[in-house]
Amino acid sequence: MKSLAFFWIFVMSMALPLSGVSIRVQAQEAEHSDHEHEQTQKEKTHNDDHSEHEDHEEGHDDHQDHGEDEGAHDEAGEEAHEEHDEHGGHEEQGASIDPQTLRALGAEVSIASPGRVSQTVSLPGEVRLNKEAVAQITPRYSAQIVDVSARIGDSVAAGDTLAIGESSQTLQRFSLKSLIRGTVIDRSVTLGEHIQPSDAAFVVADLSTLWVDIALYPRQIGLVKKGQPVRISTTFGPEPVNTQIDYLDPIVSEQLRSGLARIYLDNAAGQWRPGMFIEAEVTLTETEAEVVVPQTAVIKYQGRQVVFVKEGDSWRPRPVVLGARDRDQVVIRSGVSPGEQYVAKGGFTLKADLLKSEFESGHNH
């Protein structure tokens, strides 16, 4: 038993050092394994960093290439833009049509010259009887009408007998005579009727002169003056008449707060009739200028107001600056000089010719 115990003691004593060696070997192997793992990670990280660096350099190169492409594109765009500007800023083409052909197409050619335009205002008005040329025919006494010789619409002279009355008191007969030359516009007696001195048996008016009363709105009362030119026209009736303001009513209407201007209208031809409504175009101011053209000469071309002016053998659309204008004419402040030949009417023919030429040459963009 003692020898067996001794044997186990000997075995255990020998195993302990070997166990420690084994533990140290395992620790060293683990440490070496960790070191190799760490070294591998470092190498992998280094390789990744190197790869990223190469990718970054390649990306940087790509970016430079892209920038160069963009620069080339910008230069190409600038060249194209400059080419477009040069193309867009080309000199206006002209239409080569001789004046005879233009006239044959209905156009009118004129020479730029001085003129006058007027600032006007259009106001409503009405033709009325000239109350200073109207006569009422009444009897001197109470009488019975025993004869009537005049009818409404008859033209009579001063002193003409219109009817005969018999005095109710003396039974004497007397004549009712016209006091003026004119037209019988009213008759209020019949054969056998009894009338009084206060009764108007006839109304005779001289229609060779009439009144035209023009209503003045509050804003025009201070602008319209006696003697100002005025053009009278009506939709259905005589041709327009150019005349002037003859009278201004000094009193403003309390009901309408409007003023009144009057024209003494010559109606010797008998074309105007009382009761007609008219439009009065009153000239407030007038402007004189070196170049005045008809409004038909100014047309719109490529977004600008132009007048076609003769330059050499062609007609060119000359941009113009416009000034004051009236119903028919307009002042040319710049763009056309006195003495130049221009198209006063029918410029659309030249415009169509230019547009056709531009379309055929590819300038229509």
Which range best describes the helical content: under 10%, 10-25%, 25-40%, 40-55%, 55-70% or over 70%?
25-40%
* Count of alpha and pi helical runs: 4
CATH architecture of the largest domain: Beta Barrel
Strand content: 35-45%
Which fold does the CATH topology of the largest domain refer to?
conserved putative lor/sdh protein from methanococcus maripaludis s2 fold
Going by helix content, strand content and strand pairing, the class is alpha+beta
Choose one word for the global shape: elongated
Structurally, how many domains make up the residues? 4
End-to-end CA span: 123 Å
CATH class call of the largest domain: Mainly Beta
Q: Kindly state the mean pLDDT as a whole number?
A: 79
Radius of gyration based on Cα positions:
55 Å
Low-confidence stretches: 1-91
Main β-sheet description: 7 strands, antiparallel
Give helix and strand order, one letter per element, not per position.
HHEEEEEEEEEEEHEEEEEEEEEEEEH
Strand order of the largest sheet: 13-12-16-2-11-15-14
Strands, total number: 23
Primary descriptors:
conserved putative lor/sdh protein from methanococcus maripaludis s2 fold; 23 strands; 36% strand; elongated; 4 helices; Elongation Factor Tu (Ef-tu), domain 3; 7-stranded antiparallel beta sheet; alpha+beta; single chain; 365 residues
Protein described:
Helices cover 31% and strands 36% of the residues. It is built from four helices and 23 strands. Strand 21 and strand 22 (329-334) form a beta hairpin. It is elongated and about 105 Å long. Residues 1-91 have low confidence and may be disordered.
